[in-house]
């Protein structure tokens, strides 16, 4: 399943990059994220609880940042599995400065889901993925507004 989109932030590229890569901010912004523990500068262990179409489960996994250019771009590889199935994603994130001084974050990649959770169908999974991504970015924008406002 392809995932792609953009979101505008009021913060500049460096501040936006710092928000996007801060484990404490990610835990607050990501729906269902229970914990995110750094194992290195670029690798994190994650615990999530996510419900899809009445199928709720806990997932253990990793988030790894690759090809990192602070304030410009990075690649995010996500792997997770639980009793209800597995999820893998490989997403490129690009930050572009806006004329207003803010930043547009563009993401593009692919996600794969398997197991019981995959049985709900592609259309439902695509809708849930869009919903979770929007919730995540909306949470990050709120955090960036706090940075700008105070």
UniProtKB/TrEMBL annotation:
Coiled coil: none annotated. InterPro entries: CO_DH_gsu, START-like_dom_sf. Transmembrane segments: none annotated. This is Carbon monoxide dehydrogenase subunit G. It comes from Alicyclobacillus macrosporangiidus.
